[in-house]
Amino acid sequence: MASSSDRIANKKRRRNLGVILRLVFCPPLGLYLMWTRTGWPRLVKVGVSALIAFVIVLILTPMTDPPARQTGGVRVVGSGPQVELLGPEAPADREDIDIYTPRRTAIIVEATPTPEPIIVYCNTGGDYYHSKNCKWVKPTTPSVTLLQAVRAGYRQCPECDAPDPESVS
Ligand SMILES: [Zn+2]
Q1: Residues 121, 139 contacting (CB under 8 angstroms)
Q2: pTM of the full structure
C-alpha cells in the first residue's frame, strides 16, 4: 500500500510531465503552469523561459523579414540602344530613320478541308465508271472512289452525269 508521501510524489511527477508536455506543444500555457504550479528552482524556470523565448524569436524572425523584391516578370537587360548602325555618315539633311522591330509574328494557317472522296460505280469488265443513277448501274455494281476507278483505267460514262476525271485532284 502506497504511503501518502508516495502518492504526493506520484502526483508531482505527473504534474511535472504535464507541464513539460505543455512547454513543448503549447509554450505560453506551459510557461504559465511552470511558474504557478511547479516548485522548480527559479534558475530552471528562468532558463526554460529564456530558451522558449529564443526559439519563438528564431521562428518569427524569417516571417517578419521584408519579402525579397520580386522581379514582376520584367527583366532589365540593359539600357543602351538595341541596335547600333555602323556605316558611312548619313547626309546632314537626311531625316533619321526609325527602325521598327516586330514584336509579334502571327502565323495564320487556314484549315484545309479534307475532300470527301467521290464515289463512282464500275461494272466488272466494263469500260466506264458511272454515277449512282446511271442505267448501267445495278444493285450488284461495285462502288469505288473516282481515283480508284481512274487508276484502274475506267473512263467517264458518256451517258450519265459521272464526275469528270479531273475532279479527282
Ligand atoms: Zn453511266
Answers
A1: no
A2: 0.34
